[in-house]
């Protein structure tokens, strides 16, 4: 239980304090709290006095006017709201019995925010123009200790909350192994301060889409309502922001294209990046038609820009990632070959064989029994290698280069692995309507889908189970497994003798369909497969999975929950 908070009134009787150390400590705490409260009020008054309103009322986190024109009650209301959010200088709170590392404390300090503020409905008509009270992210670009450099640039409250979510929540979740320093360098700070309006709109659209999907305001394209109206009828706050920023991004892209701003450099790079973000958005919603149109437009722009010289790595990596994710979303071959090249990194790559030493060993040993071709084995070796590097960065055992080149290198390698996976799948089974999976190829096909799911949930871009890119693969995996596994009386076809492979495939299905409609099928089938394999303990269950693609950091909680529900 957290320590009890008490209001203390000091009577001036020094003898009480001398006799009672607990009372003396409480008095000191009260005095310290009063000191910080006064300091907060002073900071608020100082900030409001320095606040500058930009053009079109664009203010970072708030559109407040001159504070001298506002009454005292309004100022007090702001102070109450601001006191509810933690000061960025304060240390994080740790529950008794838990532990937190120094780096974790540093990375999480000041990131706690008021859920009611983050999820509140934005008014489409008044956002950015009406005076609003400051929120926990009002000081996103202000003050000491904030990852954003101080800047005269101001953003509307509606946009600021999505930029906050994008930098501090979405990107660390989708890139779990990246250091907070890299997230700030790549997706925040100077990049946002100098970014043009098109980039900011596309980032806000990306964040609004993810939030709307997580909160249930927005549903996938395959669900009821065709992607609209997730909770009952009508629109909700997060969905309104999704429509607003997505439409604003599309209008900005069309305006650039009409004015000829689609070459390389300057506005051309921003246009390409915005289109790539629009493709990434559909990885959440599953609108294949819209995503396909964006991919075709992106390919057209790249072909028209070839004569302008080599494409910068930052632009090339964005376009490559978006095209690969569209191919994964549509379960098709990538539209372009993988031509991305990575410059030499500043430090040598260390050997990491001690991390996850049994990763993929069983799958590699058995592959000759599962597939007539062995060209998939180098991909598995590279995947296991990069998974170990990802875990080394997460565990803090990885040497860090000052320019974060290790992280960029791993991102480049992971994109290459996913591109090769998609090409291998298309060459073996076709794609789209031409896809053919025979009974003799069933196990290999399921393994490839499970590996693709692992890449998109356990490595650097970890999509949630609610996203369309994961759901499409899970749904396809369920389709090919239904009726092809067997029942309590025994396994069917080539699954006989490969029960451990089936357990891993089904476990991956459970992890990637968590709280989704397909979860029940995978759970039931997994229980049957575990019984056929003779799994009688949690350690035995974990040992089977560790020979395939299993990472405790990602899958450990689900593993314990599944075992508890089956026993």
Automatic annotation (TrEMBL):
Which residue intervals are annotated with compositional bias (Basic and acidic residues) in the record?
40-49
Residue ranges, compositional bias (Polar residues): 63-85, 96-106
Region Disordered: start-end pairs: 35-109
Name the UniProt record assigns to this protein: Transcription factor domain-containing protein
Q: Which organism is it from?
A: Hyaloscypha variabilis (strain UAMH 11265 / GT02V1 / F) (Meliniomyces variabilis)
């Amino acid at each position: 239980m957290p320590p009890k908070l008490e209001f203390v009134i000091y009577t001036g009787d020094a003898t009480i304090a001398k006799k009672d150390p607990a009372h003396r400590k409480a008095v000191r705490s009260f005095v310290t709290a009063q000191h910080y409260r006064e300091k907060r009020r002073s900071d608020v008054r100082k900030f409001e006095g320095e606040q500058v309103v930009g053009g079109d009322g664009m203010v970072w986190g708030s559109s407040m006017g001159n504070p001298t024109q506002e009454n005292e009650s309004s100022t007090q209301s702001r102070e109450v709201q601001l006191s509810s959010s933690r000061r960025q200088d304060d240390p994080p709170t740790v529950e008794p019995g838990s532990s937190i590392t120094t780096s974790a404390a540093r990375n999480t300090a000041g990131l706690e925010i008021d859920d009611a503020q983050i999820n509140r409905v934005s008014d489409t008509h008044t956002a950015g123009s009406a005076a609003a009270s400051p929120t926990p992210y009002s000081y996103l670009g202000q003050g000491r200790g904030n990852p954003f450099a101080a800047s005269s640039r101001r953003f509307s409250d509606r946009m600021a909350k999505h930029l906050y979510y994008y930098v501090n929540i979405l990107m660390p979740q989708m890139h779990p192994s990246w250091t907070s320093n890299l997230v700030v360098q790549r997706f925040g700070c100077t990049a946002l301060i100098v970014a043009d309006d098109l980039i900011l709109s596309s980032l806000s659209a990306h964040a609004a889409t993810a939030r709307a999907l997580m909160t249930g305001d927005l549903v996938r394209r395959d669900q009821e309502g065709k992607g609209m109206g997730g909770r009952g009828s009508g629109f909700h706050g997060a969905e309104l922001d999704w429509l607003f920023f997505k439409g604003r991004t599309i209008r900005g892209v069309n305006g650039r294209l009409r004015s000829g701003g689609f070459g390389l450099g300057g506005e051309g790079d921003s246009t390409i990046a915005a289109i790539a973000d629009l493709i990434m958005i559909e990885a959440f919603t599953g609108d294949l038609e819209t995503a396909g149109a964006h991919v075709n437009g992106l390919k057209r722009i790249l072909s028209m820009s070839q004569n302008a010289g080599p494409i910068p790595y930052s632009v090339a990596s964005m376009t490559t990632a978006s095209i690969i994710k569209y191919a994964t979303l549509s379960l098709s071959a990538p539209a372009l070959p993988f031509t991305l090249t990575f410059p030499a990194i500043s430090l040598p790559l260390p050997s990491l064989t001690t991390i996850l030493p049994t990763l993929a060993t069983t799958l590699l040993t058995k592959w000759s029994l599962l597939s007539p071709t062995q060209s998939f084995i180098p991909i598995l070796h590279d995947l296991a290698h990069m998974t170990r590097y990802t875990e080394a960065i997460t565990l803090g055992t990885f040497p860090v280069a000052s320019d974060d080149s290790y992280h960029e290198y791993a991102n480049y390698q992971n994109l290459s692995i996913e591109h090769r996976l998609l090409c291998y799948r298309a060459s073996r089974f076709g794609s789209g309507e031409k896809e053919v999976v025979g009974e003799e190829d069933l196990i290999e096909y399921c393994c490839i889908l499970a590996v693709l799911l692992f890449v998109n949930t356990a490595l650097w871009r970890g999509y949630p189970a609610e996203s369309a890119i994961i759901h499409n693969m899970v749904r396809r995996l369920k389709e090919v497994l239904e009726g092809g596994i067997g029942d309590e009386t025994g396994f069917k076809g080539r699954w006989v003798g490969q029960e451990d492979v089936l357990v891993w495939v089904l476990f991956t299905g459970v992890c990637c369909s968590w709280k989704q409609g397909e979860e029940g099928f995978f759970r039931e089938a997994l229980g049957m497969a575990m019984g056929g394999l003779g799994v009688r303990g949690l350690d035995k269950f974990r040992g089977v999975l560790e020979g395939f693609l299993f990472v405790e950091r990602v899958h450990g909680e689900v593993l314990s929950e599944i075992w508890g529900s089956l026993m």
